[in-house]
Amino acid sequence: MTDPTSGLLHANRERGAMTFSGWAMLLIALVALFALVGSALSNAGGNGPLWLIGGTPVLVVLFILILRGFYILQPNQAVAILLFGSYRGTDRATGLRWTWPWMSRARISVRANNAISEKLKVNDLRGNPIEIAAQLVWRVTDTAQALFDIDDYRAFVGVQIEAGVRAIGSRYAYDGDEAEVTLRGHHDEVNNALRDELRARLAIAGITVDECGLTHLAYAPEIAGAMLRRQQAEAVVAARAKLVEGAVSMVEMALEQLSARDVVELDDERRAAMVSNLMVVLCGERETQPIVNTGTLYQ
């Protein structure tokens, strides 16, 4: 319902409906049926009491009205009760139920539903095109909002899933350093953010999200090759930096031990040559071939 003074949507809220157990009304229906049969037999014989013969139309109408009020609810199902279009409440009690026959009923499931979004192309925080998809488990918590505040709540869920996934995909970078929350490296944080985003979007429809997460995450095909080469280059640079760091430590340790044990006296030139040879051996990608020097270092 829209307030013309404010233009804001007044959300409906679920409340309990005044309904009855169907078993008690079934007993009354059986009594009316037996009375109707007795009235029919009296009419056929023409010797029944006048009140019984004249009450046949009343019994027929009563029996039909009682039958029209029956409905059955399975577990995790609900029925919204309406009187001439006005919402009168929701019945969630399971089993055989009965309400006034002039009440209309709108059945709705409150069971958990699973939905998987299509693969969407989104620009991440750095503007790189990525492909992203998500799945979520959702259920109706407020039947009045789902039925009367939204035209089609299932279609509404599909649209909001796409909008929420796009919002999360553009909020974070696909990849980055360890201090930055990224789509690829921080699954728990991203999934929690996606769940909060979807809950906020679906609250207007009386729907909550129990679980959600990304099912597909990749660079778009047009940049996938370039990004793969960049990741490989970063991995090579990181590996070489670690290798050089270790090699420098080993060379430093070797020189310190040679000096401490007086194994050999090295001047600056010989020290530089040893450092150069050790760095080549330790940092080279291929095995080195030793060359035996039969002369001196200065020849």
TrEMBL record:
Xref: Pfam families: Band_7
GO cellular component, one term: membrane
Presence of keyword Translocase: no
Membrane protein topology class: Single-pass membrane protein
Chief location category: membrane
InterPro entries: Band_7, Band_7/SPFH_dom_sf
Gene3D superfamilies found in the cross-reference section: Band 7 domain
Record keywords, A-Z: Membrane, Transmembrane, Transmembrane helix
Domain of life: Bacteria
Compartment(s) of residence: Membrane
Residues that span the membrane, as ranges: 20-38, 50-73
Start and end residues of each Band domain: 68-235
Name of the featured protein: SPFH domain-containing protein
Biological classification of the source: Bacteria, Pseudomonadati, Pseudomonadota, Alphaproteobacteria, Sphingomonadales
